[in-house]
């Protein structure tokens, strides 16, 4: 159980880093939406 939780945390941390990267580089929102879908 603990292992799974750690894995999930690592994944969410990675997602947060990616989001931070996009924020830092000021990508327009429509660019993000296009990539998400």
Task: Please state the oligomeric state of the protein chains shown.
Answer: single chain
Continuous helix count:
2
**How many β strands by DSSP?**
0
Please outline the major beta sheet: none
Question: Characteristics of this structure?
Answer:
single chain, 37 residues, mainly alpha, 0% strand
What's this entry about, in short?
This protein is mainly alpha-helical. The protein is built from two helices and no strands.
Q: Layout of SSEs?
A:
Layout: H1 2-24, H2 29-36
Structural notes for this entry:
This protein is mainly α. Helices cover 84% and strands 0% of the residues. It has two helices and no strands. The model has no long low-confidence stretch (mean pLDDT 75).
């Amino acid at each position: 159980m603990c292992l799974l939780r750690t894995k999930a945390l690592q994944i969410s941390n990675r997602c947060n880093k990616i989001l931070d990267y996009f924020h830092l580089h000021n990508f327009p929102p429509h660019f993000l939406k296009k990539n998400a879908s």
